[in-house]
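Researcher: Next entry: Patatin (Imhoffiella purpurea).
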Amino acid sequence: MTIAESLGLRRLPYRILTIDGGGVRGIIPVVWLERLERHLEAPAHTHFDMFAGTSIGAIIACALAMGMNAREVHDIWVNSAHLAFAKPGCLRDYGRRWANRAGLAAKYDSAGLEDMLHGIFHDLCLGELRTPTLALSYDIQAMQVHVFSSAREDHKPLPVWEVCRASTAAPLFFDPHMMVCDDSGTEHPMADGGLTANNPVVLAISEAVCQVKGKAPVTNLEHVVVASFGTGAPPEGQTTVPKTIFGHGSAILQALMTGATGTDHVTARTLLPPENYWRFQTSISDRLSPLDEVDNIDALQAVALAHLADGADHRLAQLARRLQGKPLERRWWEGRHAHEVAS
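Model: Predicted structure:
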């Protein structure tokens, strides 16, 4: 926080919230967002100028941008995750699981995921979100990341549920989503954005700088503040060797997501001044690392709460001050390196 900002002589920074992908592990950042809103004494959408998310992070970002508070998002995810990751209920479901183990089919029928998304967003279009929002997906045909933006004219009419469906189409778990992504009228097969940018922080910073430049010239990133929320960092390495194609595919997918997340974190930390970049992440056990194990939600919430008790709550309180344009507590700021969580 600069002296000018602390005295109210300078505009508030451009504030971004980014949320990683991670399937059911998305409950972790939701718990932290609830605590952040408690410190802000207001919903997150009133204190951020942009949201960005990948996969479950895109769902959370869009829900916040439409005006939900973190408690509402928490309740929806806890009560609806089983729709997306439904346990086998008939012979067809069991057949799909066997085919999945051989690498021949997605593990889940996307109908459950789509029902969940329809239940959250209904007929809302991307351009109707209250806060500018980015959702990352991957165009399999073009072989490149695709950034859905509520600020783009050709993206504004897109249904939010469909954008989130595209962002959450994790390979091996769900089939790619065929959709028209722009005004070309051509359908493209869209997959989970975590394939290239599970942590959307760098793309969000790039988008923000362009938007800020549109209002006033910016020569550096001192006017951009980022709060970046992870979904738990699994242990490095494999404890067991996968015995099926699906197992190897899952390991590869996890490696892609973890590698991209770490790289983007390091890049953002390098780009932004220390007081402008706030990364929240915690370690999780191998047992809690699966993206689709709904039965882990309670344990994941416990991990998130434990991280708060281990110092993250104080950091969230300082982040709230930064977002509100208040100076950081001097004693805390001077000793922040001792309290910083390695990630």
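Model: Note for the record: The domain at 13-324 is CATH 3.40.1090.10 (Cytosolic phospholipase A2 catalytic domain).
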